[in-house]
Amino acid sequence: MTLRRGENAPLPTTAVRLEFGRAAGGGGPRTDLCALLLTGDRKARDAGDFVHAAAAHPSGAVRHEGTVVNGSLLVDTLSVDLASVESTVGTVLVVARGDGGPFGQVPGMFVRAVADGAEAARYACADAGRETAYVLAECYRRGGGWRFRAVGQGYEGGMRGLGAAYGLAPDALPDLPEPAPAPVTPARPAPVVAVPAAPAAPETPAAPVPPVPPAPVLLSKVTLTKQAPAVSLAKQGATSGALRITLDWQAQQRRWGGRDVDLDLCALFELTDGSKGVVQALGGAFGALDRPPFLHLDGDDRSGGTGEQITLNMDRAAHFRRVLFFVTIYDGARSFAGLHATVTLRPERGALVDFTLDECTVDSRVCALALLVRDGDELVVRREARYLVPRRGVSPQRTVDYAYGWGLTWTPGRK
């Protein structure tokens, strides 16, 4: 649905991708996409409610997913899980920052909301003028649901003016940071002409100096945190062999109807040939190591005594585009609240990587754990630890699919 300025449309799901597009290489100022969360009285509580490429929201509900070149377009994306937005938040502003000129000079600017893999609403931002900070759109609560509104309001005072409009100190919202400087190539020194000298008496050659061996790679455990959420597996020495992802939890104090807590470790995969699927105990989709998807769920632990494990074949690492490891509650608990779980990646070669899940404060039965993505020739693992809240009648698996845009077709299954 194409909107005009001020118009709105309902959002069919609470898992939404907000995309800010403009012409790539079309000149104009540098721009990026951000979000500002507002309370019911349309005020920001503090700078922690501002989401940009270097800072996700503390709730995990809104995060910047990166910038890509898509054909002739440059596209920034925000991932928004509206079901996980705090109840005191009534609006998520979709904001663009600029540097080097006004938004009126940004060619082909638009914003759109994508839900359930399809475009739910689009607004072509053709009304920009001299503004250097621009509210593109907003997602807001209405009647128990969420709607998307085309806003198109800018501030000539940049982020200072925008922050002040929503109750923040003038310096609370950072401007668009300067790009990293290009590497400086040292100038080639002028040639030096040697003047021949009188021959000297021969000297006994010195004994050859053995080369200094390279410093060994120190392999130790790497713990991922909110402040340092990602690590390159190759740089930790994990380039071949088996990579085992384990989930361990403490269930002794949480039982439901006398039954042990049963968590299911799962993985969504996308290979470089475009094939996609899921590895999980539900439906017996255990995968395989010697053929696609090169992932295998080793078993189904129904008590937490031994944990669950998925093995990834790093000898076939070139086949992986992205893998999302997630966990669902199959039985024994209504949410993750009070459950203490640890995720560990154990490569056959290289440093162990682990992290613990944060305390769950929402009614969640599915949690995105870690995202393995291709970055050039390397695989990078990123801590997600993101609790998701399924809508009524929507399975946990479909919920995590919507949140990360996998686009699979789901049918009921059982173990």
User: What class would the helix/strand composition place it in?
Assistant: mainly beta
- Name the average pLDDT: 82
Find the count of extended strands (DSSP E, 2+ residues): 25
| CATH homology-level superfamily of the largest domain | sav2460 like domains
CATH class of the largest domain: Mainly Beta
* Number of spatially distinct domains: 2
Query: What would the CATH topology of the largest domain be?
Result: Lipoxygenase-1
What is the H/E string?
EEEEEEEEEEEEHEEEEEEEEEEEEEH
Count the helices. How many? 2
Beta-strand fraction estimate: 35-45%
Radius of gyration: 26 Å
Portion in helices: under 10%
CATH architecture of the largest domain: Sandwich
Principal-axes geometry comes out as globular
What is the end-to-end distance? 40 Å
User: Could you name the ranges where pLDDT drops below 50 across 5 or more consecutive residues?
Assistant: 180-198, 212-219, 251-256, 302-306
Describe the biggest sheet? 7 strands, mixed
Strands in their spatial order, largest beta sheet: 13-23-22-15-20-19-18
Q: Can you walk through the features of this model?
A:
The two termini are 40 Å apart. The protein has two domains: 164 residues, sav2460 like domains (Lipoxygenase-1), CATH 2.60.60; 183 residues, Sandwich (Lipoxygenase-1). About 9% of the residues have low confidence. The longest helix is centred in the last third of the chain and has 9 residues. Strand 6 and strand 7 form a beta hairpin. With 415 residues, the protein is mostly beta strands. The protein is built from two helices and 25 strands.
